[in-house]
Write a structure and sequence with these properties.
Elements lengths: L1 H21 L10 E4 L3 E5 L7 E3 L4 E10 L2 E8 L2 E6 L3 E2 L5 H5 L3 H32 L6 E9 L7 E8 L6 E11 L15 E10 L4 E10 L6 E11 L4 E4 L9 H8 L1
Antiparallel strand pairs: 1-4, 1-7, 2-3, 2-6, 4-5, 5-6, 8-9, 9-12, 10-11, 10-13, 13-14
Helix pairs in contact: 3-4
Length: 265
């Protein structure tokens, strides 16, 4: 019995010694990146702000590791803001929770400050990139922030569209004409009798000042639910000074989902 206890003690010492040896050294300038492994909410560090829904695969910066409300959590930065996320919901390739939590208080504080600063810089860089893209639309006279088409009602047949635009120019927009084309499930254009053809044009009224956005809803563009896909085929913009711009390829001025998510976050 004594021999068995001795063996267990030796095993415990061996395991403990190995765990201490395996702790990786982290300096105050080390960058630790984590990957969210499941859809989850992260608790906001700021009690006055809402928690954040993080999608599986989201990349975050790790600021620290601690026990928060009785649970082991990582202190992270996402889009320039701080959150807490449960240890088991974050994958880190090169380091562990123990590596990070083993830092002395001075190193941990410098590491945290460095990581938070990096998150703010990256966020600023993302936003600047989006505005460069928006400003790149200036020669075209307009940017499409977002647009969608949808079934207007379950009780009636009809497909509608919603468009949000941004004015990157130095002029105030007076009117905008959007031309839409809908396609049925086999890829043929949907003919709308009111438009006497496949192209449906609708007029939007401003004003939209420099740097502002405008959102427009066009109900029942098509009096049918056969519209499987749709596109904006062209746009004409008129400004308050009477000048006009025609955009023949609206895809060139449509903001991507990536850039839109940066702004919305």
């Amino acid at each position: 019995m004594k021999k068995l206890l001795l063996i267990l003690v030796l095993i415990s010492i061996s395991i403990y010694g190995k765990s201490q040896t395996d702790i990786k050294n982290i300096t105050d300038s080390t960058i630790v990146v984590g990957l969210v492994i499941e859809d989850c909410y992260a608790d906001s560090y700021n009690v006055n702000e809402d928690n954040k829904m993080l999608i599986k695969g989201t990349t975050v910066i790790v600021n620290g590791a601690e026990t928060y409300r009785g649970e082991k959590v990582f202190d992270i930065s996402y889009k320039g803001k701080r959150y807490y996320i449960a240890k088991y919901k974050l994958f880190i390739k090169d380091y562990t929770f123990e590596d990070i939590s083993a830092m002395d208080s001075i190193t941990a504080e410098k590491f945290r400050d460095h990581s938070i600063y990096l998150g703010i810089i990256l966020r600023k860089s993302e936003i600047e990139k989006v505005f460069r893209v928006l400003n790149g639309c200036k020669p075209y006279g307009l940017a499409i922030y977002d647009w969608s088409y949808y079934d207007e009602s379950e009780y009636t047949e009809g497909t509608s569209a919603k468009v949000t635009v941004y004015n990157p120019t130095g002029k105030t927009i007076k009117y905008i004409w959007f031309s839409f084309i809908g396609y049925n499930p086999v890829g043929d254009r949907v003919i709308e009798n009111r438009a006497k053809g496949a192209v449906i044009t609708r007029k939007a009224v401003g004003p939209i000042a420099k740097g502002d956005t405008g959102t427009y809803q066009f109900e029942y563009l098509w009096f049918t639910d056969m519209v499987e896909t749709a596109k904006i085929s062209s746009i004409k913009v008129m400004y308050m000074d009477g000048t006009q711009k025609v955009i023949t390829n609206p895809k060139l001025v449509t903001l991507s989902n990536e850039y839109r998510s940066i702004i919305e976050d």
